[in-house]
Each structure stands twice: as C-alpha cells, then as structure tokens.
Specification:
The structure is a single chain. This protein is mainly beta. It contains five helices and 31 strands. The strands form eleven sheets. Strands 3, 4, 6, 7 and 8 form a five-stranded antiparallel β-sheet that branches. Strands 11, 12, 14, 15 and 16 form a five-stranded antiparallel β-sheet that branches.
C-alpha cells in the first residue's frame, strides 16, 4: 500500500511551484535471503515530472528505517533497481523502505520486514475436492512462512509424477494459511498429479505430491415437473457419483454466486409439501396442524413453544420418508427425486469449509438464508446457507449449514424454513 503522502499526490497536492510532484515508488519484495545477506530494492513508477536524482533503500533493525537506519544509494532515474545487502545477522528482524528524490522532495515506498535465514516455507498439500470432468480444487496450507513474507503460492500440476519439474504452475496469490486453487481446463477421465508450493525470500517450499482422476464427461437430461402448480424445467448435475438438480427447489435459475437472489428458491418447513408456504412472502399462521396431517393451506406456520414444530405431533419422524426410508407423498421433489438424507449431505460436503465452497462447487448452492420458526421473518439471506435433509430424531431434524467460517451438519427445529436441493433416487 502506498504511504499517505503519495495518496495526497494523486489528489493533486504536494506539487511545487513548477508543477512537479514527488515520485511514486514501490519497495520490492526482499529476495535471495540467506543467513547473512538479502536482495532489496524498489521501483520508481512515476518520476513526478522531474528527473529522479537519487534513489535507493533505507534498512535497519527498527521500524521506520528512513529515520534510524542505514542508507544505500542505488543510482538515479525511474524504473526498477536493487542491491545485495551483506553482513546481516542471522535471525534478526530487518526493516527496509525504498526511496526516491526529485526536485519536489523525497518519496518512500512501503515498509517491509525480513529475517536473514535459510528457512523455506513449510507447506502441506491438504486434499483435492470438487472434482469434475474438467475442473478440480486443490487445498493447501502454509503453516510456517520461514520468518519471511510469502510472496507467491499456488499449485504445480501435470499428468506425470513430479509436476514441480515438468508441470504447469498455477499461481494463487500470496500470504500464509489455508488457500484453495481451482484448476480448470482439465481432460475427462485423466489422472493428474499436484504439489502445492509457496515462495518466500529464501526460495520455494513444497507440499507432498497427491493425485486425482477427473470424472467421465456426461451430458445429463433436463428434468420437467410440476412445482407449486406450475410446470418447470430444471437441469441436473453429477457430483461425487450422485446426481442432483442444478438449482434449489423453487429457484428461477442455477446460482451464479452465493448471493444470487434468483437462485434462492423456496424456504420449506421440515416435512411439508410444496403447498405454497415455502414462498418467502407467504402469510403467517400460528395454529398448528392436527397430528399426522399436512396443513392443507399455504400459510407459514409459526411455533412459539418448544419443540417449535408446525405439527402437533412432534414424534412424527417420517414425513418426507417412511420408516423404511422410501419417499412419501409429502416430499416436494419431483418423481424420481427426493430430499437428501443427513448422511448424503455429510458425504457430499467433505472438504467444504465455508459458504463459498458450497456456492463454487458443481452444485452451486447459494446462501439463500432462512425463515425463523417463531416469527416467520427472514434471516441470513445472501449470507448463510441452510439445506434440509430428510433425516430426523426426537423433536429435531437435520440440515447442512454454512457461513463464512463453518460448514456443519446439525439439528434444528422443524418449523424453520430452509432450502431444499433434490437428489436423484438410486435405482
């Protein structure tokens, strides 16, 4: 980030009487770090309208090295420049800032910190998820930056072993921690090898090599059915060896993003038919349905008392499936499809960490929010994902939930309104 003084320059300030501004300069990443040396430098990207008569770096063992550190002059003019610092103390933190001078004054680049060492980054190739016929997502983690800033990270990939030597490098930003790289343009039914890498000023560190095989390319038929008394046509997608509808039940389209409103669809109370209650603007009613029956109206039933169920029978566990696991007439999915089980959500969500993983997966699951059981108001729309399963126990039913930091399968009250994504029944 440029210092505040340089932001003022871009706003038209800090020009002298001749209309000359101070230069614009960046401090370049510190590279070629050893226990006693490092390569430092900068880049003058704009001379401010006058010749740069002096440029270089300040460095020292305290922040703000331009005030207490050592100056190293490295020529004149604009463009990039660098110099090798020697005689450094191993394990000591150093700070460096580039500078440039013209007739209007002195400009400074951002301050960087580095440690003379020979430690490479510690990198782990975690796993490969969301494998399709043409794409896959590689998850990696940089657990230790080696004492220096991670200036590049990503994945090596190839159809042969040892992709670091012969493969393609797919860059993915910088910084430590967990990151995910989506690889595109792959071939169907092909085995690939991947290695996660990270670069600091010392060099490049690697995770372990892993492999995966893309799935068979498949064109799936569209699915036409009557939903809420309207004829609709959805697509289908094969993911992790199961076939799913390509959008939420009641949605206009497949999601383009996690907050794509046209992809949200209805919010169903657990075990209810598509009788209209799932519409986000449906009316509210506080009278529970008699034991063992469907409501027979389109109102969203609020429940203000534990166990927060829309039906008087809170032990009625087989509303969308019977006691043998077969789909019932109350299941709102089309013929040949059904609401997924708890176990199916747990299986398909392996490797998902946040709501972005749901939205970016081949299922394109948006964060459609929910409708609260005791007031009927909307919450978390565009921010959280809630998807019912057909599984239940005691006075609660199970769903998959995702936000910015979690993806979990847990239980919730049955009067809540959540999304449904249908899965194809196995033959």
């Amino acid at each position: 980030m440029l210092p505040f003084l340089l932001f003022a320059f871009f706003s038209g300030c800090d020009k002298d009487d001749n209309g000359v501004a101070i230069p614009v300069i960046e401090t370049l990443n510190v590279t070629e770090i050893t226990p006693a040396s490092a390569k430092v430098g900068g880049s003058v990207t704009n001379d401010g309208g006058a010749a740069v008569t002096e440029r270089g770096v300040y460095y020292g063992t305290s922040p703000a090295p331009e005030t207490t550190g050592t100056i190293v002059n490295i020529g004149t003019g604009d463009g990039s420049f660098s110099s090798q610092l020697t005689g450094l103390e191993e394990g000591t933190e150093y700070y460096v800032t580039a500078f440039a001078i013209n007739s209007a004054g002195t400009a400074y680049g951002q301050e960087l910190k580095f440690v003379p060492t020979d430690i490479l980054p510690d990198v782990t190739t975690i796993n490969i998820i969301d494998i399709t016929s043409q794409t896959a997502t590689v998850r990696g983690e940089i657990t230790d930056d080696g004492g220096n800033k991670i200036i590049e990270r990503g994945v090596y990939i190839d159809t042969s072993q040892n992709p670091v030597v012969n493969g393609e490098k797919v860059k993915n930003g910088r910084g430590a921690g967990i990151f995910k790289s989506e690889i595109q343009g792959l071939n169907p039914e092909t085995k690939y090898y991947v290695v996660v890498y990270a670069v600091n000023g010392v060099g490049e560190g690697y995770g372990e090599e892993k492999s995966f095989t893309t799935i068979e390319a498949e064109v799936l038929d569209s699915v036409s059915f009557t939903y809420n008394n309207v004829q609709v046509t959805y697509g289908a997608v094969k993911y992790r060896n199961r076939i799913w509808l390509d959008r939420n039940l009641g949605a206009e389209k497949t999601a383009d993003s996690l907050d794509d409103a046209k992809s949200f669809g209805g919010l169903f109370q657990w075990g209810r038919q598509d009788d209209g209650h799932q519409e986000r603007s449906s009316s509210i009613r506080n009278a529970l349905t008699p034991s063992g029956f469907q409501p027979g109206h389109s109102d969203f039933i609020v429940s203000v008392n534990n166990p927060y169920d829309w039906n008087e029978d809170s032990d009625w566990l087989f509303r969308w499936t019977d006691d043998s696991g077969k789909k019932t007439e109350a299941d709102p999915c089309p013929d040949g499809w059904r609401v997924p089980t708890r176990e199916e959500w747990q299986s398909v969500s392996e490797g998902w960490d946040t709501r972005e993983d749901l939205a970016n997966s081949p299922l394109r699951l948006p964060s459609a929010g929910m409708r609260r059981e005791y007031e009927g108001d909307l919450r978390g729309v565009g921010g959280s994902a809630y998807y019912w399963s057909s599984s239940a126990q005691s006075d609660v039913s199970f769903l998959i939930y995702a936000d910015t930091v979690n993806v979990v399968v847990y239980d919730h009250h049955r009067a809540s309104g959540f999304s449904i994504r249908c899965i194809k029944k196995e033959e």
